[in-house]
Amino acid sequence: MATSSEDNMRSRTQQSPLASQRARSSHPSEASRNQPRGYFPLGYKEGFSQWWQGMSPAVTEHTVLSYIPYLQKPPTHTQTGSAPPSASVSTMSVDKDPSREAAPITTSSITDPYGPRRWHSSLVKLSGKNRFINEFSVERVEEDVENNLVMLHGYGAGLGFFYKNFEALSRAPGWKLYALDMLGMGRSSRPTFKIHAKDREAKITEAENWFIDALEEWRVKKGIDRFTLLGHSLGGYMAVAYALKYPGHLNKLILASPVGIPEDPYAVNADMPEPEDSTMANEFTQDQGSVINESNPDIPANPRSGDNNNFLNARKNAGKQEGSGTPPRKPLPKWLTYLWDANISPFSL
């Protein structure tokens, strides 16, 4: 009996992580078989029904932040979205009533082994019409703030996506954490935004500035001179744009799986291709590797061949193996590409 258990243990330790993961996926546990699978992915009808019956933004944020360890009742302002006890659908209009502001919550060293810490939810007003940034912050009580960490979420997300990171990161002495909802997302306001530029590069710059200028105004409002900026996905892209425009206020830049960063190091010298019928279709169908290799004569022969483990090359090789009889890629629906180019998505509703 002992020998069989030792052999079993030896076989598990000699397996690579990928092999062991495949083994687990091919032999799901009894508990995983019994778990409901009604959340993701959903069909169009089920997804729309779940969205239509969904909780208000304030309730959703309050529920997510309640999972933070040692924070039993997270502070949740109700200036955007309805009050935490309500599950009714609400708009993102801003209510300036002081009674809707949230008082900071302080966890004591009795209930919080890494405390005391102060947790706060607030809405920061910016200049202009209907421009407000939703903010969640954590700071250590009775300690001087020596460093500030600002966290930016990805596209269509919100500050609640960092809920598993707030507690651990706020243990560091001298640090204060800020998580922000970018304008038009999460529980920040939805100000009107129209691009007035004509050429493609100017349009990109104008769109970037709409986000990063709001971040810079927020920094000034908070009286922060220098800080460390962390961005995930689209937040990483905007963090880079902010660093390029306002480099004097950053101590460090942390990019967590950012978008807009070319995989090929030579891509910075490659000519940008002209978009096809739609920028969305281009994003989904364009093979970046082939564009870079064909347009940049400075790339040496070896990098042109690429890494066989590279996703783009794997997709290219898979197409060669299927032969020339591969059916053409099905084009995206015209209505979808039109809405995408017009900056209309479920996240803007």
Q: Care to describe what's here?
A:
The protein is of the alpha/beta class and 349 residues long. It has helices at 2-14, 17-26, 30-34, 44-52, 57-65, 163-169, 200-222, 234-245, 279-285, 288-295, 301-305, 311-321, 334-341; strands at 105-107, 117-125, 132-140, 147-152, 175-181, 227-233, 250-258. It has a 7-stranded mixed sheet. Helix 7 (200-222) crosses helix 8 (234-245). The longest helix is centred in the middle third of the chain and has 23 residues, at 200-222. It is globular and about 65 Å long.
Sum this structure up briefly.
By secondary structure, the chain is α/β, with parallel strands linked by helices. The protein contains 13 helices and 7 strands.
Q: Quick one: biggest sheet?
A: 7 strands, mixed
Strand composition percent: 5-15%
The portion of residues assigned to helices is: 25-40%
Radius of gyration: 24 Å
Through-space gap between termini: 62 Å
Order of helices and strands: HHHHHEEEEHEHEHEHHHHH
In terms of quaternary structure, the protein is single chain
Helical stretch tally: 13
Low-pLDDT sequence parts:
1-40, 82-91, 275-319
